[in-house]
Design a protein that fits this description.
alpha/beta, 5 helices
Length: 191
């Protein structure tokens, strides 16, 4: 299957998940990420303001801010095909961009070298390669990023991934059932 078909199939799977089961799994994922952040004393985090079919990140973001961590969310320049992480201050300061994604209203406080980025996606291999939404923003951004790359996903999102030379893998995959050291599953010549 090609990336477009894999993407479409997974959006359908995620959209049709039982709401109660999905919420329970999200709660487990959130607790696991909070534990990971505490364990590694992560002070600055890049995380997306999620779309409705994705894992809800609002509660995580609130916890991060309340616990004194700096939170940055991605803001895309669609003409330049660039992405930067802008400081999140409050949900009262959120607007939607031209693609209807939620972003901070003031994108001037940028930090592209946060300690940890929670990388979204649709389908993941156990080696940390992912199929995102097709814009290539994260792969372009991550090629110059030196911090820790983690993804939160439902176990249903592990599967076949069409890997291309420009794809950048994440280091850790956190599912409700497992935490996978994806980096250790890659060969030495893979990034």
């Amino acid at each position: 299957m090609d990336k477009k078909s894999l993407r479409k199939n997974m959006i359908s799977v995620l959209s049709s998940m039982d709401e109660m089961s999905k919420n329970e799994k999200e709660d487990v994922l959130k607790e696991k990420l909070i534990g990971f952040i505490k364990e590694h004393d992560i002070r600055s985090i890049g995380i997306v303001l999620a779309m409705p079919h994705e894992l809800d990140t609002d509660g995580l973001i609130s916890w991060m801010v309340e616990s004194g961590r700096e939170v940055y969310t991605p803001v895309c320049d669609y003409r330049k095909k660039e992405m930067n992480f802008s400081r999140f201050i409050s949900f009262d300061d959120i607007v939607t961009d031209e693609k209807n994604l939620r972003v901070p209203s003031d994108g001037s406080d940028i930090n592209n070298q946060v300690e940890l980025i929670v990388v979204p996606g649709l389908v993941y291999s156990e080696a940390g390669y992912r199929i995102g939404y097709g814009g290539g923003f994260y792969d372009r951004f991550l090629k110059d990023y030196n911090g820790l790359k983690v993804s939160l996903l439902f176990d249903e999102q592990l599967g076949e991934v069409v890997q291309e030379p420009h794809d950048i893998a994440v280091d850790i995959l956190i599912t409700p059932e497992r935490t996978i050291d994806a980096k250790s599953r890659r060969t030495a010549n893979e990034k």
